[in-house]
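Technical annex, item 7. During the second reporting period the consortium partners agreed on a shared format for inverse folding records so that results from different sites could be compared directly. Each record opens with the tokenized structure and is followed by the designed sequence. A conforming record, contributed by the partner at site C, is shown below for reference.
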């Protein structure tokens, strides 16, 4: 994972609404945008913006089927991000010794 993607993921996850949307997406194999919108009290445009940021960060994947767009979690990217964070913890703990 390059440093730019790491920063995009950190920025995406820092927004509580995006984190909640990612949590909703992770609860199913795939989730239609309309189903995601139903779970939150904000406009469809706002949800679309957050979904775009999650996809740009690599945390979610999108698939279009006609007029519908479906989203699913990208667990491998999330795992890579967690591994990078764990590496930072490891380096930090070694420096403190």
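Designed sequence (site C submission):
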């Amino acid at each position: 994972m390059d440093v730019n993607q790491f920063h995009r993921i950190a920025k995406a996850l820092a927004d509580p609404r995006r984190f909640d949307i990612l949590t909703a997406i992770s609860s199913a194999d795939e989730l239609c945008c309309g189903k995601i919108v139903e779970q939150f009290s904000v406009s469809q445009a706002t949800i679309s913006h957050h979904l775009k940021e999650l996809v740009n960060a690599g945390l979610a994947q999108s698939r279009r089927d006609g007029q519908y767009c479906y989203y699913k979690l990208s667990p491998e990217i999330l795992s890579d991000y967690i591994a990078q964070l764990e590496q930072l913890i490891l380096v930090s703990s070694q420096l403190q010794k």
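The first strand starts at residue 31 and ends at 32. The chain is about 65% helix and 15% strand. All partners now use this format for quarterly exchanges.
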